[in-house]
Specification:
Oligomer: single chain
CATH class of the largest domain: Alpha Beta
CATH topology of the largest domain: Heat Shock Protein 90
Helix content: 40-55%
Number of helices: 9
Strand order of the largest sheet: 2-1-5-4-3
Distance between the termini: 25 Å
Structural class: alpha+beta
Radius of gyration: 27 Å
Number of strands: 12
Shape: elongated
Strand content: 25-35%
Low-confidence stretches: none
Protein backbone atom coordinates (compact mmCIF):
# COMPACT_ATOMS: atom_id res chain seq x y z
CA UNK A 1 0.00 0.00 0.00
CA UNK A 2 1.46 3.38 -1.04
CA UNK A 3 2.24 5.88 1.67
CA UNK A 4 0.10 9.00 1.87
CA UNK A 5 1.79 12.07 0.35
CA UNK A 6 0.98 13.87 3.60
CA UNK A 7 2.35 11.18 5.98
CA UNK A 8 5.27 13.46 6.87
CA UNK A 9 2.81 15.67 8.78
CA UNK A 10 2.50 12.89 11.39
CA UNK A 11 5.97 13.85 12.62
CA UNK A 12 4.72 17.29 13.67
CA UNK A 13 3.86 17.95 17.30
CA UNK A 14 1.14 20.41 16.30
CA UNK A 15 -2.29 19.37 15.00
CA UNK A 16 -2.72 19.85 11.26
CA UNK A 17 -5.78 19.42 9.03
CA UNK A 18 -5.66 19.84 5.25
CA UNK A 19 -8.82 20.84 3.38
CA UNK A 20 -9.68 21.24 -0.28
CA UNK A 21 -11.30 24.21 -2.03
CA UNK A 22 -14.72 23.06 -0.78
CA UNK A 23 -13.38 22.95 2.79
CA UNK A 24 -13.62 19.17 2.90
CA UNK A 25 -11.08 17.23 4.93
CA UNK A 26 -8.23 15.84 2.83
CA UNK A 27 -5.87 14.79 5.62
CA UNK A 28 -5.43 15.07 9.40
CA UNK A 29 -2.17 14.15 11.12
CA UNK A 30 -1.88 11.98 14.22
CA UNK A 31 -1.72 14.98 16.55
CA UNK A 32 -5.03 16.28 15.14
CA UNK A 33 -6.64 12.84 15.56
CA UNK A 34 -5.59 12.83 19.22
CA UNK A 35 -6.66 16.44 19.81
CA UNK A 36 -10.13 16.19 18.31
CA UNK A 37 -10.75 12.50 19.09
CA UNK A 38 -11.55 11.41 15.57
CA UNK A 39 -10.10 9.03 12.99
CA UNK A 40 -8.97 10.22 9.58
CA UNK A 41 -10.71 7.21 8.03
CA UNK A 42 -14.04 8.42 9.41
CA UNK A 43 -13.74 12.12 8.55
CA UNK A 44 -11.89 12.11 5.21
CA UNK A 45 -14.02 13.89 2.63
CA UNK A 46 -16.40 15.42 5.17
CA UNK A 47 -17.01 19.19 5.25
CA UNK A 48 -15.00 20.77 8.04
CA UNK A 49 -18.14 22.59 9.21
CA UNK A 50 -19.78 19.27 10.10
CA UNK A 51 -17.00 18.33 12.48
CA UNK A 52 -17.53 21.27 14.83
CA UNK A 53 -20.63 22.79 16.40
CA UNK A 54 -21.16 26.57 16.12
CA UNK A 55 -18.15 27.01 13.83
CA UNK A 56 -19.73 29.55 11.47
CA UNK A 57 -17.25 32.38 12.08
CA UNK A 58 -14.31 30.01 11.82
CA UNK A 59 -15.55 28.61 8.50
CA UNK A 60 -16.18 32.15 7.23
CA UNK A 61 -12.55 32.99 7.99
CA UNK A 62 -11.38 29.98 5.99
CA UNK A 63 -13.57 31.02 3.05
CA UNK A 64 -11.96 34.49 3.19
CA UNK A 65 -8.52 32.89 3.06
CA UNK A 66 -9.52 30.96 -0.07
CA UNK A 67 -11.00 34.03 -1.70
CA UNK A 68 -8.06 36.37 -1.07
CA UNK A 69 -5.26 33.77 -0.89
CA UNK A 70 -3.88 35.17 2.33
CA UNK A 71 -2.83 33.65 5.63
CA UNK A 72 -5.01 33.91 8.69
CA UNK A 73 -4.23 33.68 12.39
CA UNK A 74 -7.06 32.96 14.81
CA UNK A 75 -6.64 33.37 18.54
CA UNK A 76 -8.75 32.11 21.42
CA UNK A 77 -11.03 30.08 19.16
CA UNK A 78 -13.58 27.85 20.84
CA UNK A 79 -14.25 24.70 18.82
CA UNK A 80 -16.54 21.92 20.00
CA UNK A 81 -16.85 18.42 18.65
CA UNK A 82 -20.35 17.03 19.27
CA UNK A 83 -20.25 14.96 22.44
CA UNK A 84 -16.82 16.25 23.46
CA UNK A 85 -15.58 19.10 25.68
CA UNK A 86 -14.91 22.45 24.03
CA UNK A 87 -11.32 23.25 23.12
CA UNK A 88 -9.71 26.68 23.33
CA UNK A 89 -7.27 27.00 20.46
CA UNK A 90 -5.05 29.25 18.44
CA UNK A 91 -4.83 28.42 14.74
CA UNK A 92 -2.81 29.38 11.68
CA UNK A 93 -4.35 28.94 8.22
CA UNK A 94 -2.00 28.90 5.23
CA UNK A 95 -2.94 28.62 1.53
CA UNK A 96 -1.02 25.88 -0.29
CA UNK A 97 -0.71 24.85 -3.91
CA UNK A 98 -1.44 21.15 -4.09
CA UNK A 99 -3.56 19.05 -6.41
CA UNK A 100 -5.57 17.67 -3.49
CA UNK A 101 -5.44 20.35 -0.78
CA UNK A 102 -5.84 24.13 -0.72
CA UNK A 103 -5.49 25.08 2.94
CA UNK A 104 -3.26 23.91 5.76
CA UNK A 105 -4.93 24.55 9.13
CA UNK A 106 -2.62 24.26 12.14
CA UNK A 107 -4.15 24.14 15.63
CA UNK A 108 -2.36 24.81 18.91
CA UNK A 109 -4.28 24.20 22.14
CA UNK A 110 -3.70 27.10 24.47
CA UNK A 111 -3.24 24.79 27.46
CA UNK A 112 -0.48 22.95 25.59
CA UNK A 113 1.23 26.26 24.90
CA UNK A 114 1.03 27.13 28.58
CA UNK A 115 2.44 23.72 29.47
CA UNK A 116 5.29 24.11 26.97
CA UNK A 117 6.09 27.53 28.43
CA UNK A 118 6.02 26.06 31.93
CA UNK A 119 8.34 23.23 30.90
CA UNK A 120 10.73 25.74 29.36
CA UNK A 121 10.74 27.80 32.55
CA UNK A 122 11.44 24.66 34.56
CA UNK A 123 14.33 23.73 32.29
CA UNK A 124 15.79 27.23 32.49
CA UNK A 125 15.37 27.24 36.26
CA UNK A 126 16.93 23.78 36.51
CA UNK A 127 19.97 24.87 34.53
CA UNK A 128 20.37 27.93 36.75
CA UNK A 129 19.92 25.77 39.85
CA UNK A 130 22.54 23.27 38.71
CA UNK A 131 25.08 25.99 38.01
CA UNK A 132 24.39 27.67 41.35
CA UNK A 133 24.62 24.36 43.22
CA UNK A 134 27.85 23.35 41.53
CA UNK A 135 29.49 26.69 42.32
CA UNK A 136 28.31 26.60 45.93
CA UNK A 137 29.38 22.99 46.39
CA UNK A 138 32.90 23.67 45.11
CA UNK A 139 33.20 26.74 47.32
CA UNK A 140 32.05 24.84 50.42
CA UNK A 141 34.06 21.63 49.92
CA UNK A 142 37.47 23.25 50.24
CA UNK A 143 37.02 24.88 53.68
CA UNK A 144 35.27 21.75 54.90
CA UNK A 145 38.44 19.72 54.41
CA UNK A 146 40.43 22.26 56.40
CA UNK A 147 37.80 22.37 59.13
CA UNK A 148 37.78 18.59 59.54
CA UNK A 149 41.56 18.33 59.49
CA UNK A 150 41.93 21.04 62.11
CA UNK A 151 39.41 19.30 64.36
CA UNK A 152 41.38 16.04 64.10
CA UNK A 153 44.64 17.81 65.00
CA UNK A 154 42.98 19.58 67.91
CA UNK A 155 41.59 16.28 69.20
CA UNK A 156 45.12 14.83 69.43
CA UNK A 157 46.27 17.75 71.56
CA UNK A 158 43.43 17.60 74.07
CA UNK A 159 44.48 16.24 77.45
CA UNK A 160 40.95 15.70 78.78
CA UNK A 161 39.15 12.86 76.91
CA UNK A 162 35.71 14.30 77.64
CA UNK A 163 36.53 17.33 75.48
CA UNK A 164 36.89 15.07 72.44
CA UNK A 165 33.11 14.90 72.35
CA UNK A 166 33.12 18.42 70.95
CA UNK A 167 35.74 17.73 68.30
CA UNK A 168 33.76 14.66 67.24
CA UNK A 169 30.72 16.88 66.73
CA UNK A 170 32.80 19.09 64.41
CA UNK A 171 34.16 16.08 62.49
CA UNK A 172 30.75 14.40 62.11
CA UNK A 173 29.05 17.60 60.98
CA UNK A 174 31.86 18.24 58.50
CA UNK A 175 31.36 14.70 57.15
CA UNK A 176 27.61 15.29 56.91
CA UNK A 177 28.15 18.48 54.94
CA UNK A 178 30.67 16.71 52.72
CA UNK A 179 28.10 14.02 51.93
CA UNK A 180 25.59 16.75 51.15
CA UNK A 181 28.04 18.38 48.73
CA UNK A 182 28.63 15.02 47.04
CA UNK A 183 24.88 14.63 46.55
CA UNK A 184 24.66 18.12 45.08
CA UNK A 185 27.36 17.31 42.53
CA UNK A 186 26.07 13.84 41.63
CA UNK A 187 23.54 14.99 38.96
CA UNK A 188 26.37 16.26 36.76
CA UNK A 189 27.45 12.69 35.97
CA UNK A 190 26.21 11.46 32.59
CA UNK A 191 23.66 8.64 32.72
CA UNK A 192 24.71 5.10 31.81
CA UNK A 193 22.01 4.13 29.32
CA UNK A 194 20.81 0.53 28.90
CA UNK A 195 17.47 -1.23 28.29
CA UNK A 196 15.53 -1.82 31.52
CA UNK A 197 12.09 -2.73 32.77
CA UNK A 198 10.49 0.18 34.62
CA UNK A 199 8.53 -2.21 36.83
CA UNK A 200 11.77 -3.75 38.11
CA UNK A 201 12.85 -0.23 39.07
CA UNK A 202 9.55 0.41 40.83
CA UNK A 203 9.64 -2.91 42.71
CA UNK A 204 13.11 -2.08 43.99
CA UNK A 205 11.88 1.32 45.15
CA UNK A 206 8.82 -0.17 46.85
CA UNK A 207 10.93 -2.72 48.73
CA UNK A 208 13.22 0.03 50.02
CA UNK A 209 10.35 2.26 51.14
CA UNK A 210 8.46 -0.58 52.85
CA UNK A 211 11.65 -1.56 54.66
CA UNK A 212 11.96 2.01 55.91
CA UNK A 213 8.24 2.27 56.80
CA UNK A 214 7.26 -1.32 57.69
CA UNK A 215 4.02 -0.41 59.46
CA UNK A 216 1.18 1.69 58.12
CA UNK A 217 2.19 2.29 54.49
CA UNK A 218 0.16 0.41 51.88
CA UNK A 219 1.35 0.48 48.27
CA UNK A 220 -1.14 -0.27 45.48
CA UNK A 221 0.30 -1.28 42.12
CA UNK A 222 -1.54 -0.58 38.86
CA UNK A 223 0.96 -1.64 36.22
CA UNK A 224 0.57 -1.96 32.47
CA UNK A 225 2.43 -5.23 31.92
CA UNK A 226 2.52 -4.68 28.14
CA UNK A 227 4.89 -1.71 28.38
CA UNK A 228 8.16 -2.20 26.47
CA UNK A 229 11.55 -1.66 28.06
CA UNK A 230 12.83 1.88 28.32
CA UNK A 231 16.39 2.99 27.74
CA UNK A 232 17.80 4.64 30.82
CA UNK A 233 20.23 4.68 33.71
CA UNK A 234 18.86 2.19 36.24
CA UNK A 235 20.54 3.74 39.27
CA UNK A 236 19.42 7.26 38.39
CA UNK A 237 15.84 6.14 37.81
CA UNK A 238 15.79 4.17 41.08
CA UNK A 239 17.05 7.25 42.93
CA UNK A 240 14.56 9.55 41.17
CA UNK A 241 11.59 7.30 41.98
CA UNK A 242 12.85 6.55 45.49
CA UNK A 243 12.94 10.26 46.29
CA UNK A 244 9.35 10.69 45.11
CA UNK A 245 7.88 7.61 46.81
CA UNK A 246 9.82 8.20 50.02
CA UNK A 247 8.64 11.81 49.98
CA UNK A 248 5.05 10.53 49.78
CA UNK A 249 5.62 8.11 52.69
CA UNK A 250 7.12 10.89 54.81
CA UNK A 251 4.20 13.18 53.99
CA UNK A 252 1.90 10.42 55.26
CA UNK A 253 3.93 10.18 58.49
CA UNK A 254 4.30 6.49 57.77
CA UNK A 255 0.56 5.81 57.68
CA UNK A 256 -1.50 5.96 54.51
CA UNK A 257 -1.81 4.75 50.94
CA UNK A 258 0.43 5.21 47.91
CA UNK A 259 -0.65 4.17 44.42
CA UNK A 260 1.86 3.66 41.61
CA UNK A 261 0.35 3.48 38.12
CA UNK A 262 2.05 2.95 34.75
CA UNK A 263 0.48 3.48 31.36
CA UNK A 264 1.50 4.00 27.74
CA UNK A 265 0.85 7.46 26.29
CA UNK A 266 0.78 8.06 22.56
CA UNK A 267 1.78 11.09 20.51
CA UNK A 268 3.40 12.98 23.37
CA UNK A 269 5.54 16.11 23.22
CA UNK A 270 8.38 16.15 25.76
CA UNK A 271 10.92 18.96 25.89
CA UNK A 272 9.72 20.21 22.47
CA UNK A 273 10.22 16.80 20.83
CA UNK A 274 7.39 14.59 19.59
CA UNK A 275 7.33 10.92 20.56
CA UNK A 276 4.93 8.30 19.26
CA UNK A 277 5.08 6.39 22.55
CA UNK A 278 5.93 7.41 26.11
CA UNK A 279 5.71 6.03 29.63
CA UNK A 280 3.19 7.82 31.86
CA UNK A 281 3.87 7.08 35.52
CA UNK A 282 1.78 8.35 38.44
CA UNK A 283 2.70 8.28 42.13
CA UNK A 284 -0.33 9.29 44.19
CA UNK A 285 -0.74 9.51 47.96
CA UNK A 286 -3.68 10.39 50.20
CA UNK A 287 -1.72 12.63 52.52
CA UNK A 288 -2.36 16.21 53.62
CA UNK A 289 -1.05 17.72 50.38
CA UNK A 290 1.69 20.24 49.68
CA UNK A 291 1.19 23.69 51.20
CA UNK A 292 -0.12 26.03 48.54
CA UNK A 293 2.73 28.50 48.98
CA UNK A 294 5.27 25.75 48.15
CA UNK A 295 3.56 24.08 45.17
CA UNK A 296 5.35 26.20 42.58
CA UNK A 297 8.71 25.78 44.31
CA UNK A 298 8.91 22.12 45.31
CA UNK A 299 11.51 21.30 42.64
CA UNK A 300 13.78 24.17 43.71
CA UNK A 301 16.86 23.13 45.71
CA UNK A 302 16.76 23.55 49.50
CA UNK A 303 12.97 24.03 49.49
CA UNK A 304 11.21 21.56 51.79
CA UNK A 305 7.81 21.43 53.42
CA UNK A 306 9.04 19.00 56.06
CA UNK A 307 10.99 19.79 59.20
CA UNK A 308 14.48 18.42 58.83
CA UNK A 309 14.18 17.93 55.07
CA UNK A 310 17.19 18.83 52.93
CA UNK A 311 15.06 20.05 50.02
CA UNK A 312 17.23 18.10 47.55
CA UNK A 313 15.21 14.94 46.87
CA UNK A 314 12.75 16.37 44.35
CA UNK A 315 15.43 18.54 42.78
CA UNK A 316 17.53 15.44 42.11
CA UNK A 317 14.47 13.57 40.81
CA UNK A 318 13.73 16.37 38.33
CA UNK A 319 17.36 16.43 37.21
CA UNK A 320 17.49 12.67 36.63
CA UNK A 321 14.17 12.68 34.77
CA UNK A 322 15.40 15.50 32.53
CA UNK A 323 18.56 13.50 31.86
CA UNK A 324 16.21 10.95 30.28
CA UNK A 325 14.44 13.62 28.16
CA UNK A 326 11.35 13.35 30.34
CA UNK A 327 9.19 15.64 32.43
CA UNK A 328 7.90 15.59 35.97
CA UNK A 329 4.90 17.53 37.29
CA UNK A 330 2.94 17.64 40.51
CA UNK A 331 -0.70 18.32 41.37
CA UNK A 332 -1.66 18.57 45.01
CA UNK A 333 -4.66 19.27 47.17
CA UNK A 334 -5.61 18.13 50.67
CA UNK A 335 -6.12 14.38 50.54
CA UNK A 336 -4.41 13.83 47.19
CA UNK A 337 -0.95 14.54 45.81
CA UNK A 338 0.03 13.13 42.42
CA UNK A 339 3.46 13.22 40.77
CA UNK A 340 3.35 12.49 37.03
CA UNK A 341 6.52 11.38 35.26
CA UNK A 342 6.64 11.14 31.47
CA UNK A 343 9.55 9.32 29.82
CA UNK A 344 9.99 8.57 26.10
CA UNK A 345 9.85 4.87 25.19
CA UNK A 346 11.64 5.33 21.87
Amino acid sequence: MAASPFSGLDLLATSVILVDEDLRVVHANSAAEDLFAFSLKNIAGQPLAQLFADSGSFIASLEAVLEHNWSYTGRDLILTRPGHPSLQLNCLVTPIEDAAARLLVEFRPIDQQLRAAREQRQMDQQRANRELIRNLAHEIRNPLGGLRGSAQLLERELERPELREYTQVIIKEADRLQALMDRLLTPHKLPQIAPLNIHEVLERVISLVLAEFPDGIRVHRDYDASLPDIHGDKEQLIQAMLNIVRNAAQALNGKGEIEICTRAARQVTLAKQRYKLALELHVTDNGPGIPEELREQIFYPLVSGRDGGSGLGLTLSQTFVQHHHGTIECESEPGRTCFTIMLPLE
